[in-house]
Amino acid sequence: MHQGGRGLRVLSIPAGHVYTAAIRPEDVEYLPDPDIDGNWWPHPALDAAWWEYLPAAELPDLVHLHFGFDHLSPGQIADLTGVLRRRGVPLVVTVHDLDNPHLSDQTEHHEKVRLLVEAAAARITLTDLAAARLPAGTRVILHPRVVADPPPGADSGAAVGVFLKSLRGNVVSDPSFYRILARKVHEELGLPLRIHVHEDSASTDLVRGLRADQAGGAVDLRVHPPMPDAALHAAVAECRTVLLAYLRGTHSGWLEMCRDLGVTVAVPDCGMYEGQADDPRGVEKYRTGDPLDAARALTLLHGRGPVPYAGDRTRQLRQIREAHREVYREVTGR
């Protein structure tokens, strides 16, 4: 399995995701994701039986599990970690989600995370706040940049925005939340709340409920198809501050994107979002689901003015990759 001279072969689940592609050390090979109807999910390597018949010569040096195990039961997680142990393949787990943003009942998810972190040869998470809820020795490695090339005019936006996309289960969908929020923001700042939402069946009720508020000037409703990254980054950069309208979750790549663009973010107190901040002035916490407190946070942030990203994202990315290489070295002895 460990042939001299070749680099480490890591089975990253997934490998081709924008996050996992970013953190990969340059001298490490990530085995390609399977193509299952144009997607990698569910990864066959999450099935314990897949490992039972894998020839020894094809075993990776380690498995690095990020996400994609939602469909597994706790028993299947136990089977997976057991077969990895028997076959001598170390497991590295990055805990992105202490709480699964797509689930209202976290009981089973918490049990699966517990089984994974107990079986892991190394544990990683993204913030000190999350690490404090995980076993001792969990390493904190920050989220990498999301926007490598900010559009012209980043750090100079003036709008107050919220980007709802396709209204996933962890996003507030009640129109009254946004009506109250928008009216309070308009009252305090004299600006409409710019609401971006995808044009699909999930948003129909919300869009219908908000159209009336456009006439009063409190809501600037923008219904559109999903935007390519460049257009999305430009739209976010038009804002001085944005709201994360989440009901649950742990960490946010969206927050990182906003901070890459110098945009400040009002974050709910349900997760570890505040702990991701590069600069404490770049975020303001509000009570989850409370539109008046969310308006307070947005008003405070808007008055604070632009807060450019604090630090060197290029150097940070290099450090993130080096930190992952060190973890891989520790668990494999190579």
UniProtKB/TrEMBL annotation:
Keyword hit for Transferase: yes
Keywords: Transferase
GO MF terms held by the record: transferase activity
Superkingdom of source: Bacteria
Protein name from the UniProt record: Glycosyl transferase family 2
Organism: Corynebacterium marinum DSM 44953
